[in-house]
Every structure is written in C-alpha cells, then in structure tokens.
Backbone:
C-alpha cells in the first residue's frame, strides 16, 4: 500500500486509460456499427468482462494487503463456480436431444 | 379462516400411522412430564437450549442425528419387510413411495450431515487450540435451524402427508400437476430451513479454521480432520446456495404457480434435476471428506505413527473438492444429453477415483510397520477400506456413461451408494463416537459391547446390500414396492431383509452400549486414554467450558504427541493463568428456530397470511440481534485454578481402559 502511495500512480493511470478505451469502444460498437445484434452482444459482453478485471486489479486493490493472494484465489474460485454452474447448465440442457 | 382445511390436517385411515400418532403423543407427554417431575426445565434451558458452547451444540447435533438415524432406519426396515417376500401386502405402493422418500432425505440431510457437523463442532476448535468457533451464537442458530427443518420434515407423515416423490423430488412428478397435495411442500420448505442452517455452519467453520488457530499452527500443521472439514466447509459455501435457489424455485412453482420446472408454460423439468445434482454431488463429498479426516486421525493414533503422505492427502482433498463440482451429470446420463456431455462427465467422474485411491494407499502405508492397536474405532476404520473400495469400484462402473444405461435405476445403483455412504460416513461416525466419546463425556464406551456393535453392524450391512448388487444386475428396479414370484428375485430379497435385521441389532447394541457405559463405565480415566496425537487430548475429559486454560503453542504436526515425548507444555503454572473472555448464552437462536418452524408449517399448508404473520417473528429476531450489545463475560483466575486442579491432579495415577 505505502509503496504505491509514494510514487507516481502509474497503474491507476493505465487503468483509467483502459477504462476509457473500453467504455467508448463498447459505446462505439453498439451505436456506430452495422454488426448484427448477436455479434454486438458478444463483443460488448467480452469488453465488460475485461473492464471488470481492470477495475478489480487497478482500482480495488485486489492483490494488496496481507490477504492479497487469498482475494485473488477467492475471485478465481467464484469465477470457476459461476462458469461451472451457468455455462455448465446451459451446455448440459441444450445439447443432445434433451432440450 | 385463512383457508385452513382442518379435516386435511391429520392423516387418518392407516393403522400404522395411527399407531405412530399415538406413540408420538405419548412420548411427548412422557418427556414433558418427566422433565417437570425431575424439575429439570431451568437446567435444560440454561445449560443446553440457550448454550453457545460449541461442544454442547455438537452434542445436541449428535443426539438429534442419532434420533433421526432411528427414524430413517425404521423406514429402511419397513422397505426391507415389504420386499422380503414377493407380492407382500405390508405397505401399499403409495406408502412405500413415502417411506423411501423420507428414508433418503432423513438419512442424508438429517442423519449423516448433522452427525458430521456435530463431530466437527465438538472437535475442530479443540484441534486448533481455540476456545470456541468464530461466531458462537450463529453456531447455535445453525443448530436450531437444522432442528427446525428436521422436525418440520418429520411431522409430515402424521400431519398433512409425507412427501412421496423420492429424495431427489424430480419434476414433473414433484410439481403441483402430478403431486397436488401439500405433502411435497414439506420437502421444499423443511429442506430450505435446514439448508440455511448448514450454510451458516459452513461459513462459521471456514472463518474458525482460518482465523482461530492457536499460535504456531500454520495451515500445513493442521490435523487432517480439521483440513478435511475445512475443505468440506468450503464446498458447503459453494454448493448449498444452489440448493437454496432450486428449492426457492420449487416453492414458487408449487405455491404460487410459476413455471420454472413445469412441463407446460415454458418450464424445463430437467433444470430441476440439473440444479439438484449441481448441489447433490458436491453434497456427497461434503459428507465423505470429514469422514476421511476421522479415519486419518484414527489410523495415525492406533498405528502409533504420524499420517503417511500428509501433503498428498491435502492435495487429494483439494482435487476432490474441485472435481466434485464437475461430475454432476453422471446422475442423469439417461436423460439424453448427448454423447459429448456424457463422455466428458464420464471422464471427470472416473478421475475422482485417482485422488481417492491416493488416500486409500496413504492409510495403508500409515499402518505399515505401525504398532497397531485393535480398538473399536480402529476396527471401524479397518472395515471401511474393503467395503468402501467395493462402493468405489462399482461407482466407476456406474460412472461410465455408456454402461450406466444398463445399471441405472436398478438396485445395483442402490447397493453402490449404500456401499459408499455407509462405510464412508456411518462407519466413520461410529468410529468417531467411540474415539472421541471420552472427550465429550468423560467416560469411554465399552469395548466389548462396541465389538458386538461392530461385528453385527458390518456383517448386517454386507448381507443387506451385497445381494442388491446381484438383484440389480438381474434387473430388479429401485423404488418398486413389490415383485412377482416368477421374477426369481425372492431368495436374494429375503437374504437382504435378514441382513437388515442384523444391521438393526448392531444399532441396538450401540444404543445399549451408550446406556451401559453411562451407568457403569469407569469415570477415572486419563484425559488421553488412547495415547493420541492432537491437541484435543491435551485438555480435560470432559472438556472444561473454556477448552484451554492456556492456549497451547504448536511447532509441529501431531503437536500433543511431541509435547508428551519432550515432556513440554504439559503442566500449567499459576502465573500463566489469565482471565478468559467467553460469550454469553442466548435464547435468540432457539426463538428463531421456533418462528422458522411455525412460519414454515403455515407455508407448507399454504396459509399465506398466517405465514406472513409468523415471519414477522423472524424479522423481530434479526432486529433484536442487531441491538444486542452483550460482550460476554470473563472467567476469573480463581475459578480457572479450581477447575484446572480437579483434573490436573489426578494425572499420573490414572489407569487405562485399553491395553
């Protein structure tokens, strides 16, 4: 924590720039292109996930403090669970002749 | 008023159920009369019902779970009696459906789970050198919510009707369309209440183990039972919310006409099976992991060696925890998810056998060249290995998607999961009770009766379930209330029924052992009668309410073993005694349990206004808790000195029951 407070807040600036790029990028793709609805949803969905990652690492101090490693592990575990439950269910229920 | 149909309340017309109703009434009158006659109400209230002591909460879990074991066992015996001969007319089809449903739910959720959580409650804080769990009052709430859910589920068969759609309660059968009576509401609501309790327990143990360990006990110096309970708690926190959501959707489907799982109206009945097993499969590992921990402690203690392959054990349980989340489809290969899904889940399922195999070999190597003591706990642990391997190998057979089409829905499957859960959990719990009984109550269970218990139970278990493998391979389907003479099933079914009677005798021997030992067992035992290795044995038996006068400092694995070897840290100087801060008792958890029961009961009967009124009590409880500023109390030095002198003096002149 202290180390970062003293120097130039480089990671914050990089994070801020990336957030701006991702936000305007998403808005541009949604409003200014002729891509199909499905493609737009996929692109802005992916951008949103990148955005969330940047927020977590650059601004929410995920890795800092004594619990840094634990926090990262918890987030990874949460993501794993969410992917298994949501993507897994969709895959299982929509494949074969089950649906 | 409020749409209450009084004439539907009590189940009438069945002599078996009438008998139960009378028995329940008489038992209740007997209990209330007995406590009043002995003037024990105040003692019961202040020492047990309002306690926040983890050891007493653990003991209450164990008592409740043993009662549930009895109830679930009676259900099992009724099924065995009904199928003992072809075309028996002891139970009709409907009654049989109800009995196998309650047998499954009670044995998994109200017997196996609370027994393990009870043992975890008693032992984990002691093993990590702590004075209580992280959130003592929340711990009491967990117990009372479990108890509330269990009681609500248990009254179903006399009031309102028993759930009858199997312990899995698959839709569309469990939906309003095909099960219009209120009976299946009990399933949705009682499990929800108990599930909240379990979820809270999981969080409590995760925090306890991460934050409350005594000085020097790093994660890699924790006893194996604490490790496995920790991982099981992590799985609880991950998996139980899935059950919560699934049951909530089931409740709204049944009570408020939504269409999450219905066949018509855009619902998807298979989504229930999917969500149920997304929780249900991790659930079986929540059961098995603490049991593996129990065996690890027992193998190490009675081989008089430290556990072989400690690190690979931890690697294995973490691998099991991750794999347990990605195998759920093997419970419904035949629903038609297609070859890609079935193949992937066959592979993940079989992969679980690898870390489990590592554990089995570690236990065998722990015993190698050990000076093995054949005590009752050790016998259970030894019997576990071959029995569980039969369960595991048949599990791999069932786990192959293509082969499963042959085995599924037969008694082969039923035999398989009884061969995993009974050696995996029930043997473990018996082993744990024999092993830790002196820590809980200050006397040991009788070894001789214990061996009768062991042999009757293990032989009975094998005679009951081994024939079911062959019945299943011959085509006997599960959940069928009868079969014809021509089927040729009769001899094996009869053998199985005889086995179940032996199994019941084993359980009776256990109950007799508790009675005999409580009356006649020697009270003058040492605080460490098994010559054990972990910290729970370094304090008094039964454990004093503050656990440790001075929290021990740990430098190695098996800390107590090394303390004894080096003769360090075993004594207590007066100057080392400091005041101890303890939490106060609280009546709020039992109050919450009561209002949850009442609100749940109204909701089961779909008396919505009454349920809302009762739910106000839940909100009131939460508000009262928010304004509760009780900081607990301090135990004075003199009192600690007095308590410590009662057990520390007798050391040296103790005699040992086991030799």
Residues:
């Amino acid at each position: 924590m202290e180390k970062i407070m003293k120097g130039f807040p480089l990671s914050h600036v990089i994070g801020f720039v990336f957030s701006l790029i991702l936000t305007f990028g998403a808005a541009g793709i949604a409003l200014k292109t002729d891509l199909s609805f499905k493609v737009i949803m996929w692109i802005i969905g992916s951008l949103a996930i990148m955005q969330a990652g940047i927020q977590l690492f650059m601004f929410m101090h995920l890795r800092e403090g004594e619990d840094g490693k634990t926090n990262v592990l918890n987030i990874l575990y949460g993501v794993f669970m969410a992917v298994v439950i949501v993507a897994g269910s969709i895959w299982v229920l929509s494949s074969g002749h089950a649906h | 008023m409020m749409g209450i149909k009084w004439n539907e309340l009590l189940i009438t017309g069945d002599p078996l159920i009438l008998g139960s109703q009378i028995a329940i009434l008489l038992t209740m009158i007997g209990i209330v009369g007995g406590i009043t006659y002995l003037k024990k109400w105040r003692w019961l209230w202040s020492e047990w019902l309002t306690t926040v002591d983890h050891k007493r909460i653990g003991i209450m879990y164990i008592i409740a779970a043993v009662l549930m074991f009895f109830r679930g066992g009676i259900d099992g015996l009724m099924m065995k009696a009904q199928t003992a001969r072809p075309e028996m007319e002891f139970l009709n089809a409907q009654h049989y459906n109800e009995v196998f449903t309650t047998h499954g739910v009670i044995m998994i959720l109200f017997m196996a789970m609370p027994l393990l959580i009870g043992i975890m409650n008693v032992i984990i804080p002691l093993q990590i050198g702590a004075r209580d769990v992280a959130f003592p009052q929340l711990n009491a709430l967990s117990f009372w919510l479990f108890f509330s859910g269990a009681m609500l589920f248990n009254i179903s068969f006399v009031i309102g009707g028993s759930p009858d759609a199997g312990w899995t309660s698959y839709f569309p059968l469990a939906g309003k369309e095909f099960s219009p009576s209120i009976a299946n509401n009990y399933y949705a609501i009682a499990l929800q209440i108990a599930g909240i309790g379990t979820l809270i327990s999981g969080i409590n143990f995760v925090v306890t183990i991460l934050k409350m360990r005594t000085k020097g006990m790093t994660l890699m110096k924790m006893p194996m039972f604490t490790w496995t309970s920790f991982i099981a708690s992590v799985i609880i926190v991950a998996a139980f919310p899935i059950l919560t959501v699934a049951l909530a959707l089931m409740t709204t489907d049944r009570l408020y006409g939504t269409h999450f799982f219905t066949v018509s109206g855009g619902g998807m009945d298979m989504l229930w099976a999917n969500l149920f097993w997304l929780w249900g499969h991790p659930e079986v590992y929540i059961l098995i992991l603490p049991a593996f921990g129990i065996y690890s402690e027992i193998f190490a203690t009675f081989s008089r060696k430290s556990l072989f392959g400690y690190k690979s054990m931890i690697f294995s349980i973490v691998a099991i925890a991750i794999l347990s989340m990605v195998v759920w489809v093997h419970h419904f290969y035949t629903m038609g998810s297609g070859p890609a899904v079935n193949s992937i889940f066959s592979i993940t399922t079989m992969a679980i056998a690898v870390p489990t195999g590592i554990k089995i070999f570690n236990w065998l190597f722990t015993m190698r060249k050990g000076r093995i003591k054949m005590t009752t706990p050790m016998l259970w642990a030894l019997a576990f290995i071959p029995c569980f391997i039969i369960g595991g190998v048949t599990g791999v057979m069932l786990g192959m998607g293509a082969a499963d089409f042959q085995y599924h829905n037969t008694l082969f499957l039923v035999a398989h999961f009884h061969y995993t859960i009974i050696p995996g959990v029930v043997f473990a719990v018996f082993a744990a009770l024999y092993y830790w009984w002196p820590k809980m109550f200050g006397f040991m269970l009788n070894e001789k009766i214990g061996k009768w218990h062991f042999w009757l139970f293990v032989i009975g278990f094998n005679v009951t379930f081994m024939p079911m493998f062959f019945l299943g391979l011959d085509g006997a389907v599960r959940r069928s209330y009868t079969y014809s003479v021509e089927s040729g099933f009769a001899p094996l079914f009869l053998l199985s029924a005889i086995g179940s009677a032996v199994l019941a005798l084993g359980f009776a021997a256990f109950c007799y052992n508790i009675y005999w030992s409580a009356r006649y067992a020697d009270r003058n035992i040492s605080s460490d009668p098994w010559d054990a290795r972990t910290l729970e044995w370094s304090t008094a038996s039964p454990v004093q309410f503050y656990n440790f006068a001075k929290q021990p400092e740990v430098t190695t694995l098996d800390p107590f073993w090394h303390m004894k070897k080096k003769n360090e840290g075993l004594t207590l100087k007066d100057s080392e005694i400091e005041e101890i801060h303890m939490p106060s008792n609280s009546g709020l958890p039992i109050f919450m349990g009561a209002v949850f029961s009442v609100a749940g009961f109204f909701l089961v009967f779909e008396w919505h206004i009454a349920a809302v009124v009762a739910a106000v009590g839940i909100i009131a409880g939460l508000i009262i808790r928010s304004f509760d500023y009780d900081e607990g109390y301090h135990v004075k030095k003199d009192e600690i000195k007095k308590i410590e002198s009662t057990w520390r003096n007798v050391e040296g002149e103790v005699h040992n029951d086991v030799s």
